[in-house]
Specification:
Blueprint: H1 7-25, E1 31-33, H2 34-38, H3 44-65, H4 75-89, E2 93-95, H5 96-115, H6 117-126, H7 133-140, H8 147-159, H9 167-180, H10 188-198, H11 203-207, H12 216-228, H13 233-238, H14 269-282, H15 286-295, H16 299-303, H17 311-314, H18 317-327, H19 332-343, H20 348-360, H21 370-382
Antiparallel strand pairs: 1-2
Helix pairs in contact: 1-5, 3-5, 5-6, 6-9, 7-8, 8-9, 19-20
Length: about 375
């Protein structure tokens, strides 16, 4: 089966994304060098796909330059072309008019690769950009997100001796590579968040048109992303149906993973009061709980509390899944909101206050929970 993304809306978003970045980058310069391309955006995959598109352009131009009067299969000519390509790669200089189409393509491809790796690789084969094992190896250096899929695909083709596989065999091996590396895939929500920091978008616009999914595992991943992107009931009822919404990042706070459906409000104020009273009676604040735990901690445990500079990267993948499943009831979007709020807090007390107000009551956190203690200790280390 094949995945069906809403390519038209992905292209529209890519155009707007490229225009915004180009307006900023080319405001004080006429052209970009190769080293500037590699640092163009914080999304490394986009930068490298720009280089991939340049390489594809060079390959295409090289084919069109071939003349029936010369032997292009000569070893000397082949080596000369390789040397020329290496020289050109160190002397990239591209103006906005020629750069923007490559940029738009790189943004679109990065989104497609992030959301549906299998369908992206199949499209690369259908468009003759990756046709055999050699072309796959040449292209592999440009893949930064989900690189494990490319490496596994190369290994599978080598094991079967498929130097130049037919379409059916190639698609079959792509499917195997995606299946075998499922647990090593990059999380789409993280990378989509990076896109949204440049230009916000409605995630449902990109993935709501998916009709068929290549594998059950890929389906689960996309459903998880889609669930994290649901708007609450009021937003759904009041939001006009606009084909695509672009917002200025500097005017509107960006959260590419949109809020999940909110919990139903309590029917009356008395119920709310009873709940708050019960919570206050049976539980302590996050600060109080952590302080008591620290007072009983051993010297070694105290010394182990070194500063964390980036909470997201400090939490291991397994621990992240555990926190999401147990503390946030499987809600990835809420977890990401919590991490974002913590990172934007000015102090530990501020971070704990946000967690107390937004998440502790909502998810009925038990303050004697060892996992919660561990999570709070990590947050404490963020503000050492």
């Amino acid at each position: 089966m094949t995945s069906k993304l809403n390519i038209n809306k992905i292209e529209s978003y890519s155009q707007a994304f490229a225009e915004k970045v180009c307006n900023e980058v080319f405001s004080d310069k006429k052209s970009l060098t190769g080293s500037e391309l590699l640092k163009l955006t914080k999304i490394e995959q986009i930068n490298y796909f720009i280089l991939k598109n340049l390489f594809d352009k060079w390959t295409d131009e090289q084919q069109r330059l071939r003349s029936p009067y010369f032997n292009y299969e000569s070893d000397a000519v082949k080596q000369a072309l390789i040397d020329l390509a290496n020289k050109l790669s160190n002397n990239i200089l591209i103006e906005r008019a020629f750069f923007k189409p490559l940029f738009v393509k790189a943004i679109s491809e990065s989104l497609q690769w992030t959301l549906s790796p299998q369908s992206f690789l199949e499209s690369q084969f259908n468009n003759d950009l990756i046709t055999d094992l050699l072309s796959l190896k040449n292209a592999s250096k440009y893949f930064k997100i989900n690189r494990v899929i490319i490496d596994r695909l190369i290994l599978l083709l080598e094991q079967e001796g498929m130097i130049k596989p037919n379409k059916g065999s190639f698609f079959e091996k792509i499917n195997e590579a995606v299946e075998q590396t499922n647990h090593s895939h990059s999380e789409p929500t993280y990378w989509l968040e990076q896109f949204g920091q440049v230009l916000s978008f409605e995630l449902d616009d990109l993935i709501s048109s998916i009709q068929q999914i290549n594998t059950e595992k890929e389906a689960e991943k996309l459903v998880e992303v889609q669930e994290a992107a649901k708007l609450n009931n009021n937003q759904i009822n009041t939001k006009p149906e606009i084909p695509f919404v672009f917002e200025e990042v500097d005017k509107i706070p960006v959260r590419t993973v949109l809020p999940p459906e909110s919990l139903e409000p309590l029917e009356n104020s008395n119920s709310s009061k009873i709940l708050n009273d019960q919570f206050a009676k049976n539980n302590r604040t996050l600060n109080e709980m952590l302080n008591q735990y620290q007072n009983h901690a051993s010297v070694n445990e105290q010394m182990a509390r070194t500063k964390i500079h980036d909470l997201r990267s400090a939490i291991s993948l397994n621990k992240r899944f555990q926190i999401i499943n147990e503390l946030f009831k499987g809600n990835t979007g809420e977890y990401l909101f919590a991490i974002e709020d913590i990172e934007n807090s000015v102090s530990q007390a501020d971070a704990f206050q946000i967690l107390q107000e937004k998440f502790a009551h909502k998810y009925n956190w038990t303050f004697e929970d060892d996992l919660l203690k561990e999570f709070l200790q990590l947050i404490e280390r963020r503000f050492l």
